[in-house]
Amino acid sequence: MRTLLTLTFAVLLASPAPADTVEANASAHVAVAPERVLALLADFDSWGRVFRSVETLSTERCAPQRARVRQRVHRAGLTFAYTLAATVDPAARRVDLQLDPSEPSDMELVTSTWRVDPHPDGGAFIQLRVQSRTRLRVPAFLERRIAESTARDSLDELVRALEHVAALGSAVGES
Fold this sequence. Notes:
Layout (H helix, E strand, L loop, with lengths): L1 H13 L7 E9 L3 H9 L4 H4 L3 E10 L2 E10 L2 E12 L4 E6 L7 E12 L5 E11 L5 H35 L1
Antiparallel strand pairs: 1-7, 2-3, 3-4, 4-5, 5-6, 6-7
């Protein structure tokens, strides 16, 4: 771990240019109805229990379909704190998140879109698209690695939470 931190800081000091914008995509098929997936994503107050890789997370509901999500994450030996403006579009089965420019941030750009569609075999097909750029001077491969691991971790954590919801629903149905 010490070697990873040393390498990370050495790369940061040696990098001559600001980071590039990177895009990461992740998707999964779950045996949960799209409406239930969207309901969990729209329940911003539950995100702290769903997205376990986020070090700290707090939400502030701005309107029925809008919230401000403050988070602090630890990636590649670095900590990033930022606030996202979240909007739910139930008709399109989407949750869009954008960096809130009115709040302090360690990120220069963050946009994420969760999209939930019915899967032909039943359940839901979940897609996550993330675009990001830190304020650090890091090589593109590190910026890309941070974005990809964040997207994959977020999707995996949502899938685990949905499996738990599905198991609870089955247990209730069996009673």
